[in-house]
# Entry
Amino acid sequence: MDVPRLIHEHGAWFYLFTFAWTFVEGETFVLVAGFAAAQGLLNAPLLLVSAWLGSFAGDQCYFWIGRRFGLRLLSRRPLWRSRVDSALGWVKRYDKWFILSFRFIYGIRNFSSFALGISGIDWRRFMIFNFTAALLWAIAFVGGGYFCGRAFERMLGEIAEKFSLLMLGAFIVVVASFAIVLWLRRRRRTPEAASPSS
# Structure
């Protein structure tokens, strides 16, 4: 896709196009658009907001489809079953972390939101975490394209999947570090609570 040509031909409408593209998927597209923003062809904050809201709206839509029509659709399309079952397994164990991270796992985004709709998770809980996750995703990919510059121009299509996994890995490291810090603090408090007061 020739992003500079689209920007030249459509001007400010490109941000609406970004919204529509990220409604579906859009990793490579957003990386390229971030690179265009680094060249001054786009406004980076507007691009970020367009990608954020498009990603959020898309997953809210897939969630609603799963909630309303999920079981009926699965009975008609058995090929979807394995992907949805895989996503449901993660949802049951780690619903919050799964919502925050599934965008960074290449190729499962739409099925994940659909599976979350089937899962019975409260729609308000999904909406709050989905809103946050969409922002993190937009920052990662718009920022990645913006700061990587010309060196990645020819490789962006090939690295989209690896970049998703890299961002997921970084997210896991941050969460694990936070959990370890909390655990160590609780462990220090336990002996203090157990010792008799003088």
